[in-house]
Write a structure and sequence with these properties.
The structure is a homodimer. The first copy, chain A, is of the alpha/beta class. Chain A is globular. Chain A folds into 2 domains: about 150 residues, Aspartate Aminotransferase, domain 1 (Alpha-Beta Complex); about 220 residues, Type I PLP-dependent aspartate aminotransferase-like (Major domain) (Aspartate Aminotransferase, domain 2, 3-Layer(aba) Sandwich). A 7-stranded mixed beta sheet of chain A has the order 2-8-7-6-5-3-4, sandwiched between helices. In chain A, strands 9-10-13-12 form a 4-stranded antiparallel beta sheet, with helices on one face. In chain A, strands 1-11 form a two-stranded parallel sheet. The first copy, chain A, contains 12 helices and 13 strands. Chains A and B meet through α3, α5, α6 and α9 of A and α3, α5, α6 and α9 of B.
Chain lengths: ~425, ~425
Amino acid sequence: MPTQTVLADLTTLPVPADVLALDARDPLAHKRDEFLLPDGVIYLDGNSLGALSRRVVQRVRHVTEEEWGRALIGSWTLGAQEGRDWMALPDRVAAKIARLIGAQPDEVAVGDSTSVNTFKVLAAALGVAAPERRVLLTDADNFPTDLYVAQGLTALLGGGYELRRVPADEVAAHLRPDVAAVLLTQVDYRTGRCLDLAAISAQARAAGVLTIWDLAHSAGAFPVDLNGAGADFAVGCGYKYLNGGPGAPAFLFAARRWHAAAPVALSGWMGHADPFEMARDYVPAPGARRFVTGTPMVLSLSALDAALDAFADVDLHALRVKSLALTDMFMALLDPVAERLALTLVTPREPAQRGSQVSYRHPQAREVMADLIAAGLVGDFRTPDILRFGFTPLYHSFADVYRAARGVQAMLEARA
Amino acid sequence: MPTQTVLADLTTLPVPADVLALDARDPLAHKRDEFLLPDGVIYLDGNSLGALSRRVVQRVRHVTEEEWGRALIGSWTLGAQEGRDWMALPDRVAAKIARLIGAQPDEVAVGDSTSVNTFKVLAAALGVAAPERRVLLTDADNFPTDLYVAQGLTALLGGGYELRRVPADEVAAHLRPDVAAVLLTQVDYRTGRCLDLAAISAQARAAGVLTIWDLAHSAGAFPVDLNGAGADFAVGCGYKYLNGGPGAPAFLFAARRWHAAAPVALSGWMGHADPFEMARDYVPAPGARRFVTGTPMVLSLSALDAALDAFADVDLHALRVKSLALTDMFMALLDPVAERLALTLVTPREPAQRGSQVSYRHPQAREVMADLIAAGLVGDFRTPDILRFGFTPLYHSFADVYRAARGVQAMLEARA
């Protein structure tokens, strides 16, 4: 059977009453209408690129055609009283993100890519660590750009700085007296395994090691409590669960206790205490604003700003409850057929250890995912053999999950 | 006379026949219709934020509502054959910019802010300089973010690296054996003074010093020939004369001869030879693409991409001829009244030493510019006492220049 016809009417596949009942009592069900999802597609890749919301469409048109096109340079300061000026845009977005990650607004800086922010917090952390601690510890299977940025920074610094990559389950055993900081991604991008941020932060603190958390697959997916955990630094991504658009500006977190001492390696004029004073010497702005470097990319940042408003009326614990229910259902539907279809679950079943995705190994994962995508069931392939399905509680229904699981099953049965 | 009425009908002020004749034979006159300029305003601040073009409006709508909203994650690779995929977007924009600055496409990397790009090229230059050369030389009055970024990098590196700031006219005398590189902005943002890029690059090369040019007020304003001058590195801004929108992605130039040896300090996955291989070790992409760091901000980068198409049919030498004619006319109209109105010209009269702006000192510059802007004549104030007027040959007419000069005169006479 040609793969393109296996899932021909997947988005209209009848859904059992008990699944429809879950949607009927979903307290987040109304959020779906805020998003513009393409017809005929079940999109389970919001952990790679979040969907477009209606308010972003309006905002991008407004910022382009009115704020830039008509008000031009004036928009940098216009509306400062009401908080609409471009100069303060990074701070406004920071405040919205702070709520999602358990931070104070002045502990968050928004702008640049996750990679560049990782460089900033790594340099800040190494700068406040005791001089005899020159090892940057990380999970050897961390997301590649975290590894690459750490390689670039330690090479640049020289002077005995070293990136030490160890297996994920050996990180705790490596919190030794020569370690300055540990860089970990809370949710593994392949498996969806979620680390205990509070416990590991406490372990590290007890060992005198600073924590740097990559929240790429955490922020906006479930509540994060950086300050509750006593975390030191963090970074995160604007274009996954925050739905800020392709390559949206990223963010960093720096705990208040480090603001005075941490060096600002990328010290640009937008992190200066008074950018238009045009002073000859860099004087950092108060708080994490100092980590904003150059002129913010206003179009992309405005899209993220508008996208974040989707969270304004959302209880993050309700978001987590729904996320776990979605991923639980997906696994439960595939459990009975998984072995027969050569699917090996790699996502932890324990809720506390799971992000907002479900991943399986499959020997033909690359080809299977290509066929699924061609048929309108969009997940992600990750090397070497992973089928990844991301669930976004803001815009996914339980009916979506049911249809997706049945679609995966049908596709694999057709290939068998 | 209230200042708001002095210039009430400036944009309809009658223009002499000889000025209209210049517009009638301007080979670039047709370009103005490509831009959306607000009514009732003469906008002489394109050197701070370039104007919006019609093609950018269309492109931003398309990338947001179609490429992101409908094609979603697929847009990263869709249309790769025809060069429309997001993955190659930085390279496509780089090729368009390369033509404007005398570079090969593979010598330009696009993305991040000018500040972040400055960090990248400074780190690259210091990394290829002889180890005994640890001084980074710059003009003490360089644009602040250049100074701040250089401060941040030299502090980060430690090890005897030093930022040496000298008066602009003493730079040549300081090209000494301990100097690794010289960082200069070709066109001074206050005065519009344009340095002889070729001559200074040759002097530096003869002294064994690498050149790093900030082209913020050069690229798109007049032809630049980096390779003709044998320049080593450069950075530039996307939101001034390139009209890429507020905070548009910036660019860097790295001469081919340095690609193999120059370290990539900000080594992110989008500069990896194969980003989706998810390899554990950073392997740089060929050419300057290695200097692309994180995921590109696609909305902002698409706006810049579309904006650059305004240059496709433009002879850059014709652009320069018109630019000089516009600034010549502005000065000539104000010359007879300048002394009486306390205007002191600070822009060089010599064409080769002038960018695409005209600046005057005035004892009440801040208040005068506020009044001009309120009346619809938008220039810029720069500390401590500079009135700055930027001229963009793509969308300014000689009639604009005439009216602007008369407007400045009328405003100052009304205040006298």
